[in-house]
TrEMBL record:
GO terms for biological process: asymmetric cell division; cell differentiation; nervous system development. InterPro entries: ARM-like (IPR011989), ARM-type_fold (IPR016024), Armadillo (IPR000225), Insc_C (IPR045789), INSC_LBD (IPR031938), INSC_LBD_sf (IPR038205), Inscuteable (IPR039921). The lineage of its organism: Eukaryota, Metazoa, Chordata, Craniata, Vertebrata. The gene is INSC. This is Protein inscuteable homolog. Residues 80-532 form the Protein inscuteable homologue C-terminal domain. PANTHER family: INSCUTEABLE (PTHR21386), PROTEIN INSCUTEABLE HOMOLOG (PTHR21386:SF0).
Length: 532
């Protein structure tokens, strides 16, 4: 799926890693916050009347000595949950290495963490249930069983007996993990239900703002929590906010939260059930809304039309409002006051061109090519390879239409595409390098499609596009050794050579055009660069 730096989910923009993010803050700041809650593991071992571990990695173990502030069950669950999940993973690693002393001491520590989570959550939770009580009991029983069996393993010297006991420990650890996951999910579900009820019942702007902010923070913890929020009515509640004029100032926050929730199938299904697309269309087409609000609505559109999410392709209600949405997005691109606003609007348009072929015809009628190409010369709107990736995606999908070629010529678009073939990263970060590769690949694809028109092909040759394509084919560093860029450039070169063969030297023709595409690909992909 697609995502913007900062956690947005957008196509072709790299997402952050999938580990559990407890807070969206700088790592040093996070360490400073948690420092007061951490203590070395030997303290807990002493409290449990166990010997202090002498193993070399014992000093690296840190545990949570206290919980979050009073009355904050969500942060308590997330922090304790992260610690226990980490402990379970590390016990599995030590078990695989047959390091029984470490397995036992970590099992004791795991029991302490589980007991702390249960007691602390019981102290701050709103109510208890029979199901919760049963899961808590099962979890603690399995923790005690794990501690007992690992302690027995320390006394066993027979390798065959130890091997059979290892399988038993592994099974106990697996069951414990399942009970913990069920308990954590149930507790988080209860907290989400409370937040959703609070949003639905509130007519106070400050209460709604705070609660919506808490919901957004939860969406940043990953897809499992987004599924819980969607199932418990979070999407319905947020669209309720977006339909009340009294909450207009909260629309951006609510829409940002919706974009995060809709990275999962349940979120998109809930959006369709409450006519969410119609609400988004209303916001996008209403000029009385601030640009920031319409930009966040564009982000939701980009998410629910992502071509990388198979479930978004069945969003039937989108077709009914597509023309209004496309028109509003083009206008937003044209009037965007910043690069981020343009990126969100163009990303939504790029995804829509994959979503339905009619969108390309609509864009053509709305003079989208002129709007997009003009924006490319405006550094305030188009200043990153991520944005150029969206623009060239739209051009590549529109280039299947015959009329597109004449519009490209009229707006000097071939020269712009030529420039995209030379896209280079500024920072050298993996995400930016990947974005530059996509820009080069899609620029070559666009050129190949447009070169069906002899006029476009001749203009490309005049601008030395063939020389640049040959350079990309022969020099791995120019394309960052990308096979996708190589294939696209070979295809574009062959299309241009078919119209203007005189633009090629004999060696280039014999190696890059005349052979089968796969043979030229193998030749170029194995080619060593010449620095002479």
């Amino acid at each position: 799926m697609m995502a913007l730096p900062g956690g947005r989910h957008l196509d072709s923009i790299p997402l952050p890693g999938q580990r559990l993010h407890l807070m969206q803050v700088d790592s040093v700041q996070r360490w400073m916050e948690d420092l007061k809650l951490m203590t070395e593991c030997e303290c807990m071992c002493v409290l449990q009347a166990k010997p202090i571990s002498l193993e070399e990695d014992a000093q690296s173990d840190l545990i949570l000595a206290g919980g979050p502030g009073p009355g904050d069950p969500l942060q308590l669950l997330l922090k304790r949950g992260w610690v226990i999940s980490t402990e379970l993973r590390r016990i599995g690693q030590k078990l695989a290495q047959d390091r029984w002393a470490r397995v036992h001491s970590m099992s004791v520590r795991l029991t302490c963490h589980a007991r702390s989570m249960v007691s602390e959550y019981s102290a701050v939770s709103r109510s208890s249930s029979q199901e919760m009580g049963q899961l808590e009991k099962l979890l603690m029983e399995k923790c005690s069983e794990l501690s007992a069996i690992t302690e027995r393993c320390l006394q066993v010297e027979n390798e065959h007996v130890l091997k059979s006991m290892k399988a038993c420990v592994s099974e106990t650890l697996s069951t414990l993990g399942q009970h913990f996951g069920q308990l954590l999910e149930l507790a988080l579900t209860r907290e989400v239900q409370a937040l959703v009820r609070k949003i639905n019942a509130s007519d106070n702007i400050y209460t709604t703002e705070s609660t919506t902010g808490n919901l957004f923070s939860l969406t940043q913890e990953g897809a499992p929590l987004c599924r819980i929020i969607a199932k418990e009515g979070g999407v319905v509640a947020l669209f309720k906010v977006c339909r009340q004029d009294s909450f207009r100032c909260l629309y951006p926050q609510a829409l940002r939260t919706l974009a995060s929730i809709c990275c999962v199938e349940e979120g998109v299904h809930q959006l369709e059930k409450v006519d969410g697309v119609l609400c988004l269309a209303d916001i996008l087409t209403d000029d009385s809304h601030p640009e920031a609000t319409r930009a966040e609505a564009a982000a939701v559109v980009a998410q629910v039309t992502s071509p990388h999410l198979p479930f978004t392709q069945h969003l039937g209600s989108f077709l009914e409002s597509m023309e209004e949405i496309v028109t509003a997005l083009i206008k937003l691109c044209q009037e965007a006051s910043s690069g981020e606003v343009f990126l969100l609007a163009s990303a939504a348009l790029a995804n829509i061109t994959f979503f339905d072929t009619m969108a390309c015809e609509m864009l053509l009628q709305l003079n989208a090519i002129r709007v997009l190409l003009e924006a490319c010369s405006d550094k305030q709107r188009v200043d990153t390879p991520y944005t150029r990736d969206q623009i060239v995606t739209i051009l590549a999908n529109m280039s299947v239409l015959e009329q597109c070629a004449s519009d490209i010529i009229q707006e000097n678009g071939v020269q712009l595409i030529m420039g995209m073939l030379s896209e280079k990263p500024r920072s050298g970060t993996p995400a930016e390098v990947a974005a530059c590769e996509r820009v080069q690949q899609k620029a070559a694809v666009t050129l190949a499609r447009l070169s069906r028109d002899p006029e476009v092909a001749r203009e490309a040759v005049r601008l030395s596009c063939m020389s640049r394509l040959i350079e990309l084919c022969r020099s791995p560093s120019e394309r960052n050794s990308s096979d996708a860029v190589l294939v696209a450039c070979l295809a574009a070169l062959r299309r241009l050579a078919g119209v203007c063969p005189e633009g090629l030297q004999d060696s280039d023709f014999q190696q890059l055009v005349q052979p089968r595409l796969v043979d030229s690909f193998l030749l170029c992909s194995n080619m060593e660069e010449s620095f002479v």
